[in-house]
Design brief:
The complex is a heterodimer of chains A (161) and B (574). Chain A has 161 residues and is of the alpha+beta class. Chain A has helices at residues 2-11, 21-32, 37-47, 51-60, 80-84, 87-98, 142-155; strands at residues 72-77, 111-116, 128-130, 133-135. Chain B has three domains: 3-76, Ubiquitin-like (UB roll), CATH 3.10.20; 91-207, Alpha-Beta Plaits (2-Layer Sandwich), CATH 3.30.70; 212-563, Rossmann fold (3-Layer(aba) Sandwich), CATH 3.40.50.1780. In chain B, a hairpin with a 2-residue loop joins strand 14 and strand 15. Chain B has helices at 20-26, 78-93, 109-116, 152-160, 195-199, 211-219, 250-260, 268-288, 301-310, 324-340, 357-362, 381-390, 412-415, 422-436, 474-485, 515-531, 541-551, 557-563, and strands at residues 3-7, 10-14, 50-53, 60-61, 72-74, 140-142, 167-169, 176-178, 205-207, 224-229, 264-267, 295-296, 347-353, 368-369, 372-373, 377-380, 454-461, 464-472, 493-497. Classes of the chains: A alpha+beta (161), B alpha/beta (574). Chain A binds chain B through residues 37, 40-41, 44-45, 50-56, 59-60, 66, and chain B through 158, 163-171, 178-182, 188-189, 573-574. The complex binds iron/sulfur cluster (SF4) and FE2/S2 (inorganic) cluster. Iron/sulfur cluster binds next to helix 4 and helix 5 of chain B.
Chain lengths: 161, 574
């Protein structure tokens, strides 16, 4: 499945060269939610670039993920307004509670964390969004509640699909 | 010389197009470097080599800046030295303080620079690195905490070996050197050539140690401990014992190994001769019976793994001969064990190699039969030197001895395996004899000698023109393979070595030897060839006896069972 998607994307770059690397990776991530090993190898074969090099380039930018998204994808806003109101400790607390770092997905596949620049909801700062649902004025205390809410949802079997 | 430049108020000569560093070095002025690699395009990234150039506000990197007529340079002004010192202090700020326990203690470039620049207090302390040590590889240990990101490993891996198993990942203060997905080296495309170890300035990269296990085996009364050493070993250790680089230490080495407690001492050059017997028979068979050509040599385990990953369509071209190390391993636990009536289970077989890929080769599935591994442990040249010292052996004061018979007797052709082109030369000598019934009078084949990354020759054998090529450094091999894929048909036999110049420059050799030392090793091998009376593998009487009494004929049943192997395609992240 992944292979087809990647093939399709590569198909749109018939004379793909090194300079197409970033746009190709972006498209793959858009489609798949992350850059899988298989995808990187495929891109490498086409562009004649070793996997280590592509991984190196991709990790240089914050935007790329290397694990599939969790069932609930948490975006933590690190824009200026949120920063001023303590988004750093919000992120830290989420990482602590889920025991994974930003950019990663929990072992059970339930949550993934992403750091984003301003998501345009400065009035709600500090704000996080979970699968697109905004949670306003998050505090380190309210994080547990928010996470539990999604854990319960998952148990009741009503995921985001 | 094209013009003069002024260095520290004195005129020196310089050539158009060369870098400041080249001009300085030629004129006996030393400027410290870190990221600079000889014969490679300078990156100018570490800034250790900075100098002051008249008319320029910033300090200039000598390794990357070209000279111009009338250029005025200061190489050791206070400003320059302070700047260099600051770089070292910054590099040390997050470096583990465990020099005393480090593999590279006293042979570390960072230590050397700190000493040179008089860094004697810690002015800057940063957060210490805390990475997991990567022990996953059979050959290499990676300790990233000691990595100073000079990038030299990344460059050899890509530019010399064409592998690119590793690269810079992440950015800023999080930058590390790692594999794709930052996984263990064992799952990467790494071919274990060890050239990254050779260029690493610190203790971030070193070989998987086997010495402790060997030391226990030497104490075990149940075990007969047998050792073999590769052709390049005896010419690669002299300088470590204060002698002239390239001096042949064979006699002292035999004696030292016995003093250390090895029960039998064999010479891998013997099975190099055996490899020649089998490989030349295979070549002739392929030529006469329409087999796959060109045939590719198989003695270099880094190359074999490279072929299994990157040249899968060429695997049928690779000779089925095991490497000399593995042929010796197989003979020790069969022929030798029978002869001495020792249960192979009680033989502990060690090999000493200028190579770390041999540690991988030894662990390949095909090299174990009925639960018995042909070779039990592999020591690098570096580990050997340490062990000799540890056992209190004075190589300068030791009565030379000869190796044990019969697996210790070689021709000089087998000895030449240590240098790029040596396998080819030995093979041609024997193939010529087999095809014509006569000995090659001009036994030297100068076209395949030397350090050139690619050498080619056409050999006339009774009217048949045999095309041969010798490549070292796998980037060179990949280029040649591409030519062959694109239809080149004039080459029948190719020798491939992963390390530039061959095993004398292997990834298990002494770190920090200069070009001259490596060259001296090569010259010594050719010198041995000049002086020896037996210059042909097929004239080695012990090889003839081995066929007569045990193996039968080359490519025969017994040979196939013991001396030949097969290869597998490998799925790794390329
Ligand atoms: S051992 Fe060779 S292939 Fe492996 S990382 Fe080092 S240079 Fe690259
Ligand atoms: S040696 Fe010149 S910049 Fe590193």
């Amino acid at each position: 499945m992944m292979e087809r998607a990647v093939e399709n994307i590569l198909g749109r770059y018939p004379n793909a060269k090194r300079e197409n690397l970033i746009p190709i990776l972006q498209e793959i991530q858009e489609r798949e939610g992350y850059l899988s090993e298989g995808a990187i190898v495929k891109v490498g074969q086409r562009l004649k670039l070793p996997a280590s090099k592509i991984f190196g380039v991709a990790t240089f930018y914050n935007q790329f993920r290397f694990e599939p998204l969790g069932k609930y994808h948490i975006q933590v806003c690190r824009g200026t307004a949120c920063h001023v109101l303590g988004s750093a400790s919000v992120l830290e607390e989420i990482e602590k509670q889920l025991n994974v770092k930003a950019g990663k997905t929990t072992k059970d596949g339930l949550f993934s964390i992403e750091v984003v620049a301003c998501i345009g909801a400065c009035g709600l700062a500090p704000v996080i969004s979970v699968n697109g649902e905004f949670h306003a004025k998050v505090t380190t205390d309210s994080i547990k509640e928010i996470l539990d809410e999604y854990r319960n949802k998952a148990e009741e079997g009503e995921g985001h699909e | 010389m094209d013009f003069t430049i002024e260095v520290n108020n004195k005129k020196i000569e310089a050539n158009k197009g060369e870098t400041i560093l080249t001009a300085l070095n030629r004129n006996g002025i030393k400027v410290p470097t870190l990221c600079y690699m000889k014969d490679m395009f300078p990156t100018g990234s570490c800034r250790m080599c900075v100098v002051e150039v008249d008319g320029r506000k910033d300090l200039i990197t000598a390794c990357s800046e070209p000279v111009y007529e009338g250029m005025k340079i200061k190489t050791h002004s206070q400003r320059v030295i302070e700047s260099r010192k600051m770089i070292v202090e910054l590099l040390l700020s997050n470096h583990p303080d465990d020099c005393l326990y480090c593999e590279r203690n006293r042979n570390c470039e960072l230590q050397g620079l700190a000493d040179l620049l008089n860094v004697n207090e810690r002015r800057i302390s940063g957060k210490k690195n805390n990475h997991k040590i990567d022990q996953s590889s059979s050959s290499i240990v990676r300790d990233q905490d000691k990595c100073i990101l000079c990038g030299r490993c990344v460059r050899v891996c890509e530019e010399i070996e064409g592998v690119s198993a590793i690269d810079y990942i992440n950015r800023g203060s999080k930058t590390v050197i790692g594999t794709a997905y930052n996984k263990g080296l064992n799952t990467s495309s790494c071919i274990n050539c060890g050239q990254c170890i050779m260029v690493c300035p610190t203790g971030a990269l070193h070989e998987k140690p086997h010495a402790p296990e060997i030391e226990s085996a030497l104490e075990d009364p149940e075990k007969t401990v047998v050792v073999q050493y590769a052709p390049a070993i005896s010419v690669s250790i002299a300088e470590e014992f204060g002698l002239q680089a390239g001096k042949d230490m064979i006699g002292a080495l035999n004696a030292a190994l016995r003093k250390m407690g090895f029960n039998f001492v064999f010479d891998t050059s013997f099975t190099a001769d055996l490899t020649i017997m089998e490989e030349s028979a295979e070549l002739i068979d392929r030529i006469q019976n329409g087999g796959k050509l060109p045939m590719l040599t198989s003695c270099c385990p880094a190359w074999v793994k490279y072929a299994e990953e990157f040249q899968m369509d060429m695997l049928e071209n690779v000779s089925s001969c095991k490497s000399p190390q593995q042929m010796m391993g197989a003979l020790i636990k069969s022929y030798f064990a029978d002869k001495k009536e020792i249960d192979p289970k009680n033989i502990y077989s060690v090999s000493i190699m200028p190579c770390i890929a041999k540690k991988f080769e030894q662990q390949r599935d095909e090299m174990t039969h009925d639960g018995i591994t042909d070779i039990d442990a592999v020591l690098t040249t570096r580990e050997l030197v340490k062990m000799i010292r540890k056992y209190g052996i004075d190589l300068n004061n030791i009565e030379p001895e000869i190796a044990d018979s019969p697996l210790g007797m070689r021709s000089s052709a087998g000895k030449m395996f240590g240098a790029s082109g040596g396998v080819m030369e030995a093979a041609i000598r024997t193939a010529y004899y087999k095809l014509t019934g006569e000995e090659l009078i001009h036994f030297r084949i100068p076209e395949v000698r030397g350090f050139e990354g690619r050498k080619e020759a056409k050999i006339n054998i009774n009217g048949m023109e045999l095309g041969v090529a010798v490549v070292s450094g796998l980037k060179n091999a990949a280029e040649l393979m591409e030519e062959i894929r694109n239809g080149r048909e004039d080459i029948h036999f190719i020798e491939v070595m992963a390390c530039p110049g061959g095993c004398i420059n292997g990834g298990g050799q002494i770190i920090g030897s200069d070009d001259e030392a490596v060259k001296a090793r090569m010259m010594c091998l050719y010198d041995i060839d000049e002086k020896d009376s037996v210059k042909f593998s097929h004239k080695n009487p012990y090889i003839l006896e081995l066929y007569d009494k045990f193996l039968g004929v080359p490519l025969g049943h017994k040979s196939h069972e013991l001396l030949h192997t097969s290869y597998q395609k490998r799925e790794v992240m390329l």
